Amino acid sequence: MNLSNIGINFTTAVYRDTLNTAIIKNMITVVLCISINYVNSTLVYTFTKHQVFNVNPRYILYIHLVINDIILLSLFTLLQVLSYVVYTLNVSLCIVLVMISIFANLNNPLTLAFMAVECYVAICFPLRHTQICTVRKTYVVIGLIWAISILSILPDLFVALATESLEFFRSRVFCLRVNVFRNSNLTVKRDVSNSVFLVIVWLTLFYTYFRILFAAKTAAPDAKKARNTVLLHGFQLLLCMLTYIYDLITQGLTYLFPNEVLAILYTVSIFIQVLPRLISPVVYGLRDKTFRKYLKRYLLCTTKMP
C-alpha cells in the first residue's frame, strides 16, 4: 500500500495541515472510500447471491480482485484518518496494518496475471477450458497468490524481530513501512521482489494478449472482447505499478514545489491509491452484461431479481 512506501525523510521538520484543511482532506477521502467501497461491496454481494457467478472461475478471480481493492482502500483511508487524529500508532499495530496492505497490494498484479491466463485459455483452448479452469483450481490459485504475497513480506517481519529491541515494538511511530521495517537491506529486497513480480506479470499479459490478438483475427466476438479485457488488465497493472514509483513522483514534485509538501503527498496518494479502485467495477460491473443486469438492481436498491 502506498502509505507504507513513502520514502521522503521529514525528520528535520513536522508538517501538519491546518484544522480546516485536515477536515476537508479527510472528508474527501472518506466520501470517496465509502462511495467506491459501496459499489465494490455491491459487486461482492451480487456475486454471492447468484450461482451463475460463483461457479465461474473468471468471476471468482474478479471478485478476489475487488475484495483486495476494498482492503486497500479501507486501510488507506483508515491510516490517513488516524494520521490526522492521533498522528502516531503503536509499532506492533502499525506492522499488522502495513503487512495486510502489502498482501493486498501484491495480490492485485498476480490476480490480473491469472485473469489474463483464464481469458487466454477460454479463447485459444475453448474445448479444454472447463477442464483446465475449474472452480477448485481457481481457489487453489487464489491460495497460491496469498501464499506468495505472505512469503514475500515475512522476511521483513523476521528481520525486524531479530534486529529491533522490545522497546521499539512498544513505541509509537508515524505509520509508514520505512518506519517499522528500518533495515536498509529490506529496501533492496523490496525493490528486487517488486521488479520480479512485475516482470513476470507483464510477460504473462503480453503473451496472452498477442495470442488472443491472433485468435481475434478470426473476427470471433468473444476473442475480441477477451483481447480488450486483457488490455484493461494491462491498464490496471499500470496503475498498480504507480505504487512502486510513488517515491520518485513525490520526491520529484517536492523538489519542484518545496512549499507544497502536504498537498503533493495528499494529491499523489489520492491518484495512486483511491482513483484506481474505480477501474475494477468497470471491467466486469459495467462491461459484462450478466453482471450488469443484476448489479443495477442492487445498486439502486430496487426489487431483487429472482
Topology:
Layout: H1 19-49, H2 51-54, H3 57-85, E1 89-90, H4 91-124, H5 129-132, H6 135-163, H7 166-170, E2 172-173, H8 177-180, H9 184-216, H10 221-241, H11 246-256, H12 261-274, H13 279-286, H14 289-299
Helix pairs in contact: 1-3, 1-14, 3-4, 3-6, 4-6, 4-9, 4-10, 9-10, 11-12
Features:
78% helix, single chain, mainly alpha, 306 residues, disordered N terminus, 1% strand
Q: In percent terms, what proportion of residues is strand? A: under 5%
Strand element count: 2
Give, in spatial order, the strands making up the sheet with the most strands. Answer: 1-2
Q: Specify the biggest β-sheet.
A: 2 strands, antiparallel
Shape: globular
Oligomer: single chain
Helix segment count? 14
The portion of residues assigned to helices is over 70%
For the termini, the CA-CA separation is: 39 Å
Unreliable parts: 1-14
Roughly how many Å is the radius of gyration? 21 Å
SSE sequence, one letter per element = HHHEHHHHEHHHHHHH
Q: Quick check: average pLDDT?
A: 81
- How would you classify the helix and strand content by structural class? mainly alpha
